[in-house]
Amino acid sequence: MYIWLHRAYAGALNANVWLRQRAYLFMLSRRRHRLAHADLSYLNLQGIDLRGADLRHANLHHADLRHARLAGADLSGADLSLADMTEGQLDEVRSLAGATLPDGTIVGDDA
Q1: Is residue 100 a part of any domain in this protein?
Q2: b/e map of 79-105 (b: 16 or more CB within 10 Å)?
């Protein structure tokens, strides 16, 4: 009996966490033009739509950006150190001037 209750509680808890995360990602994608200087470090942002987002000087340290859509996003001055993302995603952004890349290198201001 207790095992069944524990499994039901754990399942409901997992569903609640999943639903809240999806709602949060939806809210962030709607605010994408007002995310400059935002602290998004350590967040799971997998699959979020941030096309054309204003992420200037945002803190994305150790964020999970796998499958995130970043085409046209302004990441100038952003901290992307240890962020989980691909080179292809970095190639699609509008600006990386002054940004710290996932490998720790800092992009020059002329990029």
Answers
A1: no
A2: bbbebebeeebbeebbbbbbbbbbeee
Residues 64-79 pLDDT 10s = 999 999 999 999 999 9
Q: Is residue 111 pLDDT above 70, yes or no?
A: no
Angstrom distance (rounded) from CA 12 to CA 48: 24
What's the number of domains the chain is made of?
Answer: 1
Report the alpha-carbon distance of residue 25 to residue 43 in Å, rounded: 10
- Per the CB < 8 A criterion, the answer to whether 63 and 45 are in contact is yes
Domain-located, residue 109: no
